[in-house]
Specification:
Blueprint: H1 12-15, H2 21-37, H3 44-99, H4 107-112, H5 118-121, H6 125-139, H7 146-201, H8 215-218, E1 225-230, E2 234-240, E3 248-253, E4 259-264, E5 277-279, E6 283-288, H9 289-292, E7 299-304, E8 310-317
């Protein structure tokens, strides 16, 4: 193959798609299309028969992952809206309704809202949800606040359902991302097998093999969005990149585990020393190339040192 990326000992299809699922989809379908168009030629039909099911399985897995990302975004938007509503106007309305029955500063008021509206407006999601449930419990059988309790319970149910949906979609997206990665490797192996078979068919004119592969696309396009899952107490290689000062990236930590990011000398070992970026659970942070630049270290990693599984969305801008 007439390109500097090819090597007789490396699987180029795996190497050039190691950080790019969409590139694998494109080059895999290109090869399938050419094989299909030429299946009547001598020796091509068996290559197509072996390759086509693996290619199709990858495309289905990738498309499912993209669809799950859309569902995750939708559930995240709903959840954000509910928490915005909790901050205002719900916290204000509930406070005012309680003050209509119990004056501010009285023991009854302090029993219900010892910190006034603060717990509904600040803290992480679990803490704010707990504040809603604590208010329901504190109202108890107070008949004067029965109507308000019903309103708060209805909101608490909506919030709980939205959290469950969001976490379910988040988990499904992360798991699918892992499955896409596994399918990518299998597809790369199938493409390399097809390449070897095509070389055997074209021993006297190897240049003919080039036409079965999307060489321009193999050389270009980088994946910019990564939705990944990382088990507790583990590390994970994400992509290879030589960082420049102008590079930026954003990490949306969707889980409870605190995650650390940095660069290593190899994809098989975590980075040593302190992380360049730490992102706590259910938060978003931005990193820069200046933070990450570290000589020849090019393997971008995530480390989960906590005792619980983590998941995150990484978006690169370079």
């Amino acid at each position: 193959m007439a390109t500097s990326n090819w090597s007789s000992t490396d699987n180029v299809f795996e190497n050039v798609t190691v950080d790019n699922y969409i590139k694998m989809r494109g080059i895999a379908l290109f090869t399938k299309a050419v094989l299909t168009a030429r299946q009547a030629e001598t020796g091509i039909a068996p290559i197509l028969a072996a390759y086509s099911p693996i290619c199709d399985a990858y495309v289905i897995k990738y498309d499912d992952w993209v669809e799950s990302e859309g569902e995750h975004i939708g559930s995240s938007t709903t959840l954000d809206t509910l928490f915005d509503t909790l901050s205002a106007p719900n916290a204000r309305k509930w406070d005012n309704a309680i003050q209509d029955v119990y004056d501010l500063g009285t023991n009854d008021y302090r029993r219900l809202l010892p910190h006034r509206r603060g717990p509904f407006q600040s803290g992480n999601r679990d803490e704010r949800q707990s504040a809603v449930n604590a208010l329901i419990t504190a109202i108890g059988a107070d008949l004067a606040l029965a109507t308000l309790k019903g309103q708060i319970q209805a909101f608490a149910t909506s919030l709980s359902n939205a959290l469950l949906l969001h976490e379910g979609n988040m988990g499904a997206t992360s798991i699918l991302s892992d499955e896409v990665e596994a399918a990518r490797i299998v597809t790369a192996q199938a493409m390399f097998g097809a390449f070897a078979s095509l070389c055997l068919l074209n021993l006297t004119n190897l240049k003919n093999v080039d036409s079965y592969f999307d060489l321009p696309n193999i050389q270009h396009k980088k994946q910019t969005i990564f939705n990944l899952h990382i088990p507790a107490g583990s590390f994970r290689f994400i992509f290879i990149h030589t960082f420049k000062p102008t590079d930026t990236f954003e990490v949306e930590n969707n889980g409870d585990a605190n995650l650390d990011f940095g660069v290593s000398q190899t994809r098989t070992q975590p980075f040593s020393g302190p992380p360049f970026l730490s992102v706590s659970g259910h938060s978003t942070s931005t990193g820069t190339g200046t933070q990450v630049m570290n000589g020849t270290y090019r393997f971008f990693m995530v480390v989960n040192s906590s005792g619980q599984d983590g998941s995150f969305k990484l978006t690169t801008n370079f």
